[in-house]
Amino acid sequence: MNPLSNPNVLFLIVLAVVTLGYTWSCAVYPYRPCRSCRGIGAFRSPLLRAIRLCRRCGGTGRTLRAGRRAYNSCLRARRSYRDLRDRDRRDENR
Ligand SMILES: [Zn+2]
To answer: Fewest CB atoms within 10 Å of the CB: 2, 20, 80, 85?
Structure first.
């Protein structure tokens, strides 16, 4: 029997391909245009037509994508755990 004929196996394969594709795309393209200023990074003030930087993106016009934010958060958590573990080991050896 061909395992691809089972719809559950096919669904899991499609899910894995989509997940890997999104992970790859977040690694290659970590930024997306800012939702507030649409990637411009600045606004025109309505009164004096002065240029004001976008508060959401700080004037860069881009923000991190959700997948990249999650990855960075995992990285920070892992790093802080590792630092705490190393510190505890160092204290035990004294
Ligand atoms: Zn912005």
So the answer is: 2
Q: How far away, in angstroms, is 20 Cα from ligand 1 center?
A: 29
Asked if 34 and 56 touch (Cβ cutoff 8 Å), the reply is yes
d(CA 65, CA 6): 34
What are 56-74's pLDDT values in tens digits? Answer: 999 899 999 999 999 999 9
For ligand 1, an ion, list residues with CB under 5 A: 34, 36-37, 54, 56-57
Q: What's the mean pLDDT when you consider all of the chain?
A: 90
The pTM assigned to this predicted structure is 0.67
